[in-house]
Every structure is written in C-alpha cells, then in structure tokens.
Amino acid sequence: MKSKIIITALILFVGVLIFQTISPENTIPTAVADTTDVNPNGSSEMSKLMRDMQKYTTDAKSDIKAGKSPASYPAEFDKVHTAKISDGVSMSEFYKQFADLYVMAVKNYASSTPATRVETYNNMVASCLACHSQHCPGPVPAIRKMTIKE
Fold it and tell me: Per-domain residue ranges for the chain?
C-alpha cells in the first residue's frame, strides 16, 4: 500500500511538473529521421534501449492477460541513465528524475503480486508517458495504447 501511494504521488508530481514546464521554447527537438532505418531516430544507444523497453512492456501486457508472473527487472534498463542519445537531441534538467521514476516503476512491476500487477504495470506505462511528454514526444500515442483498462 505504501509503494502504491509513493508511485501515485510521484506520477502526479511529474505530471504537474511536465504541464508547468512545457512551452514552445522548452520542447526538445526530435532528431532528423534516418529513412534507411526502421527507427525514426536512427540507431543510437538510447533508441535501441527504448525499443527493448517497449518490448518488455508489450510482453508484460501479454503476460498479464495470460495470468503469468512478470519477467524480472532487466539490468540493462539501468543504462537509461547513461545511454548515448541521438545526435542533435538534448535532455532537460528533469531527465534524470524521469529515468529514476521509470527504473523504480519497472522494479515495482517486476516484483508485483497478482493483486497489484495491473496497477504497477500501468504505473510503469505512466512513467514512460511522463518522460515522453517532455522528451521525444513521437511515441506518446503508442505508449497511451499500452495502458490496461481496468
């Protein structure tokens, strides 16, 4: 119960922070698309990591629907703090907090009980949405579709 309150409070805090800081001069430009790569941002270390995160989340949604336990926390996700981003893109001063929130949310999901599984999964998706609302907004529509409606 305590972790539920903490996660909910953090997500609300991040949401308020995002809406207070987003303005045209604060938005992050997206990288120029590389038409030879399926990924619109090329193949930076960060974009590859994000695709792994997306697969983990997609698999998690399928696992929940099948009644399976979550996969363990992938240690490679810790690279979200250090992965090289696409050229021409910069991170705001809030990126580290978003990364910390994401790591915490995935760890909470990976250790969730059946009673908290959907909630911790949706918190994980919300942490992705919070960050992508500020940084690299292209995936936002796809991230919103990952949410499980209770």
Answer: 46-150
